[in-house]
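Allow me, if you will, to draw on your knowledge of protein folds for a short while. I have a record of one protein: its chain in single-letter code and its fold written as discrete structure tokens. The full record is reproduced below for your convenience:
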Amino acid sequence: MNMEENSKKDVLKQTRSNKLYKRWWFLFSAACIVIAGVYLLLIRPGMTQSQAKGAKAPVRIVPVTAEAAKKGDMAVYINGLGTVTPVYTVTVKTRVDGQLMDVLYKEGHMVNRGDLLAIIDPRPFEVQLAQAEGQLARDQAYLKNTRIDLERYQVLWKQDSISKQQLDTQVALVQQYEGAVKVDQGLIDSAKLQLVYCRITSPITGRIGLRLVDPGNMVRASDTNGLIVITQLKPITVVFPIPEDSLPQILRRFKTGAQMQVEAYDREQKEKLAAGTLLTIDNQIDTSTGTVKLKATFPNKENELFPNQFVNVRLLVDVRREATIVPSAAIQRGPQGTFVYVVKEDRTVTVRPIVINEIQSGNASIKTGISAGELVVTDGADRLREGAKVELKGQNKAVSVKGRP
């Protein structure tokens, strides 16, 4: 019995020992795995970075486009959105009442001042003229007779054959008929004037608009719409607003009497429509918009401008002589202000702070910071930093700083 019990105890101990061994082995394996992971995640990258510090990184070359700064004259413009406004626009109305008999113009055609446009029935006024002329002839005959009688009365009064009262009465009668003759002459002149008004002529030279009244209709002087509208096209004006901050600069030039050039462009500012000069400046600033209106005149010889057309206006206010000019695409802005990337002779770039006078039509006039001949980066600046290596591409590839190959 004792031997069997001892044998069972030995087997039990052996089993416990095996289980304990396996457990410790599992824990040891897990610890090794954790240590290996920590090594790979923390220690090995640190060694790689320290090794990378000792190694030299490859130099990255950035392809860019550059242009040389140049000296030249730069025009300074003030831009505005203008409306083409005719010098004269006339709504032609009748000055007499009557039937519109005939229309002698064509819609949209040019007419000259004094051209016959329409005819109103003249017959009623011809009748009035005939009546006035007949009345004048009658009153002239009466006047002639009273004057003869006056001469007789004067002789009889000298002979003391009539009283002074009879003579004075005859004098008054002569004056009465003289007044009647003047009234009759006025009626004749009025009737002739009405006949003139029956023939409607153009008061200005310009373009005829669409017909407002057809022949056969009755027209009256009290009609508000009129018969036709005529617009003068040559010359023509453009009214455009500018910011009030730009007014002093314009006034200084305008007061000298110099003609200030104005250009009109289409909506996209690509096609130049016409060129003219500044005519006048409005007498007050619009407080709601902070702008003041200017008026420019254009010859408009080829009818480039049309009434009420919207155009983009450029007013030339100054010309900067011998200015340093760079493309506006080269201008960069950062926390420290405005700057450009300048390409040096070793094909590296440096940041150069600049001061700008103005930017016009894709070019910038530089006050300080750049000299003529220096290359400035115009494309690819977003990938650059101080000292970056660059490669000039396109037509500037063979060009170096200050124009040397």
